[in-house]
Specification:
Blueprint: E1 17-21, H1 46-57, E2 75-77, E3 89-92, E4 99-103, E5 107-113, E6 119-124, H2 126-131, H3 133-141, E7 148-152, E8 162-164, H4 165-174, E9 182-186, E10 189-192, H5 194-204, E11 210-212, H6 227-230, E12 236-242
Parallel strand pairs: 2-3, 7-11
Antiparallel strand pairs: 1-12, 3-6, 4-12, 5-6, 5-7, 8-10, 9-10
Length: 244
């Protein structure tokens, strides 16, 4: 059981694969950051963020290996992260190492082998997905994608994610089937389905056992932070680790 209304991913991962996704609840931040903001770069009170992170840390085996996310496709080894490094994904085979990504509309993609030998986590907004962050994370895990499972966390949903022609073009150029993830809204504008795009990317990489998806951050202001909805807002965290 998780405290507050935090999320425990519902996926058939081995018992030693542990994961936790925070929501807005359980923290001390106020105003647009209320209440469990974990982001240090969004102009929240640093003392409040420190307290929020400490509250989450109490449910983890070690201090998370925080990343400086840049909407790219760089993947690092979680155990190598000792200070902020620019990356949008991490992987590990080392028990106790807590991989983490922050989000406020971008999608956390959690990956694990069925035998629990290696895990990976990716920060997948449209730029990261189009740039191959999911595929690179799978490659960095150095395991057969057919022997992996994935879980898609809360993200901006298909009824709220308005994008331009250039976003659609970026995906369709790489995979014509991506047209299925876009619905016309008005001239030059589309509604994009990040969950479908992620499933397509995972399938092309050989991973078809995909769980989760469907929780929209924009549509639930009580539970989730959303940059698209509020602009000035906090960040949630998705945490993934291996037990010994």
């Amino acid at each position: 059981m998780t405290p507050f209304d935090w999320i425990t991913p519902d996926w058939p991962a081995p018992p030693r694969v542990r994961a936790l996704v925070t929501t807005r609840s359980g923290g001390v931040s106020i105003g647009p950051y209320a209440s469990l903001n974990l982001g240090i770069a969004v102009n929240d009170d640093p003392k409040a963020v420190a307290e929020n992170r400490a509250r989450v840390r109490a449910h983890l085996p070690e201090e998370p290996r925080w990343l400086k996310q840049v909407h790219g496709a760089t993947v690092v080894a979680g155990e190598s992260v000792s200070a902020l490094v620019e990356a949008d994904a991490s992987v590990t085979r080392t028990p106790g190492v807590v991989c983490v990504i922050q989000m406020a509309d971008c999608m956390p993609v959690l990956l694990a082998t069925r035998d629990g030998s290696v895990i990976g986590i990716a920060h997948a907004g449209w730029r990261g997905l189009a740039g191959g962050v999911v595929e690179r994370t799978i490659e960095a895990m150095r395991a057969d994608p057919a022997a992996m499972i994935a879980w898609l966390g809360p993200a901006i949903g298909p009824n709220t994610f308005e994008v331009g022609d250039e976003v659609r073009a970026a995906f369709v150029a790489a995979d014509p089937a991506a047209v299925d993830a876009f619905r016309p809204l008005k001239t030059g504008k589309w509604l994009a389905d990040l969950f479908t795009l992620a499933r397509q990317r995972l399938a092309r990489a050989g991973l078809t056992a995909v769980h989760g998806g469907g929780l929209c951050t924009v549509s639930d202001p009580t539970r989730f932070f959303s940059h698209r909805r509020d602009r000035l807002t906090g960040r949630m965290g998705a945490f993934l680790w291996l037990e010994p």
